[in-house]
UniProtKB/TrEMBL annotation:
Residues 8-189 form the Putative glycogen debranching enzyme N-terminal domain. It comes from Micromonospora luteifusca. InterPro entries: 6-hairpin_glycosidase_sf, 6hp_glycosidase-like_sf, GDE_N_bis, MGH1-like_GH. This is Glycogen debranching enzyme. It comes from the Bacteria. Residues 336-587 form the Mannosylglycerate hydrolase MGH1-like glycoside hydrolase domain. It holds the Pfam family GDE_N_bis. Gene3D superfamilies: 1.50.10.10.
Amino acid sequence: MKELVSILDGNTFLVSDRRGDIEPSYDFPTGLFSFDTRFLSSWVLTLNGERLHALSVDDTESYRTKFFLAPGEPTHYLDAKASVIRSRAIVGSFEEELTVLNHSGAEVECTVRIEIGADFADLFEIKRPREKLGKTTVSVSADELRMTYRREAFHRETLVKTSVPAQVDANGMTFRIRIARNSRWTTRLHVSSVVYGARGEDIRATLPYGGSRSADAIRAEQQELIDRAPKLGCDCQPLAGAYRRSLNDLAALRYESIALGVRLLAAGLPWFMTLFGRDSIITSLQVLPFLPELVPPTILMLAGLQGHRVDDFRDEEPGKILHELRYGETAGFEEQPHSPYYGSADATPLFIILIDEYERWTGDAALVRRLEPQVRAALEWIDTYGDLLGTGYLWYQTRNPETGLQNQCWKDSWDGISYADGQLPGFPRATCELQGYAYDAKIRAARLARTFWNDPEYADKLEREAADLKHRFDRDFWMDDRGYYALALDADGRQVDALTSNIGHLLWSGIVDESRAAKVVEHLLGPRLFSGWGVRTLAEDEGRYNPIGYHVGTVWPFDNSIIAWGLWRYGFRDEAGVICDAMLAASEFFDGRLPEAFAGYAHDLTEYPVEYPTACSPQAWSTGTPLLLLRVILGLEPQGEHLIIDPVVPPGMGRVELLDIPGRWGMVDALGRSRGPEEQPRDG
């Protein structure tokens, strides 16, 4: 894959090559996208009919990029008589300033051409191209190119304007220019991506930001968020760099929801620039100790769209929390079920966990009381629709075999759940971490019922159910001959015996019997699962292991952050530090930005983490990973009106100081230092 350059603001983003050019692609989403539609599929610059080459690219800011270009092949750069600067930004709309510089000693005439096209592809059509079912029309004027797509009530438009006159045709703009010696020529191009509603209104114009902002406003808004976050001082440069990059990316990933007009975190560029139940909840858990004000919009959006009926096409059921919300053509015409789609079994218990964790940090009792009906409905779903076989476990099987997801746990690729020999179990499936989430959700909901809903009987009932679940889970999932919990139960109650990273989520949930914890930890940090860069999704000796397979051998940073949190919960602080160290070491090879996933090759085989070719970056729950690791390192845990601080800093990391940690206690500071060689490890 060519090296690509991305800029974004909210869920509007642009992906180009290193020259700044966009060419139609059906394997990776290159182009200008907003709300799941590609508004530019071609944007190619030539000077006197010749393509340009990149001298340098300045992409230090998330929302803008500057390309320094020259005509000809690289060997001719020294003799170039002209150069070009493309300065572009996503500021709601897309703007590009194009400057041609004359380096010769005489006046020159030249032709600048930009080829422009819009295929209005839905994001789901990028990998599965098809003939568009609507009609595209093009109109031109002296300074404007308008491309319009209509399919019944679905209406999208790309409008390109130039600040200087051009010869505009249906395929682009041509500028015939004269530049004095040692002088320059400039034009400013403005590209509007218009999303029309059912009544013909520009939906984006109705949002609080009106679909357009200045670069100064974006910079100020992002800086304001960064300034609100706790201040990190540390001796560990990888930690400092990853923390700074995470805050920058969190600021960039916020977008305005069409549905409610609130600011939400998009899940990841380029494939997931929208609200996801699971991803958004886990990201919220990661960022909660640092920027708690980012969390309520996600909670309220998920609560507002909670399932209320049985809809086979959307996998919707009463009380169920959505998986994914899309705005594109295929969702609008019900060719995909994402309007919204409810195909995840874990988002519902995770929703309950997030609400409890949010209150524990912030003391926002009003939100807990307000959402009592939604939490009760989610608990009811776990015990009814979620328990497909009536066995007291949480199962999944799609109601929509044509376009629904087969796997509805976080490893939701088709082969993400397998036996040790590589065979795939039938449906329904009950993966182990789902049971852990359900256990934790009931324990936490019991606290909410007793403390805020004045319903101690319900609280007692939930705690009895959780205790029973923990007992049965240990009986039915533990494999004594293997020394770890089964990945899942199949429809016949047989154990799906592959060794996976899912067992780390069990530690986080608290469902693991204390007597089993050491064995589980031994596997997580053993050579079969731990690559040296992190815990693999699947052990390297399992039948489906592939170090570059999406869920069958890669290392996922978010997964590792949850595992580290689980190790911390059970007192394995040094082991948690090993994972923190590995993740931060890996982050250095990605300029501080952990990607969605990277290859599972062993550390001694590659000496650097190998990129996964189509990984999202930035991705929200990878962006949140350094924050959760920092929480684990400093041992931050809310307890009543106080924040417990119990740091165990990995050896060699030195001083770690976090100032102004927000919460119900006001602002507090945390300081930790790694142990000297003479100090003994503390007890777990």
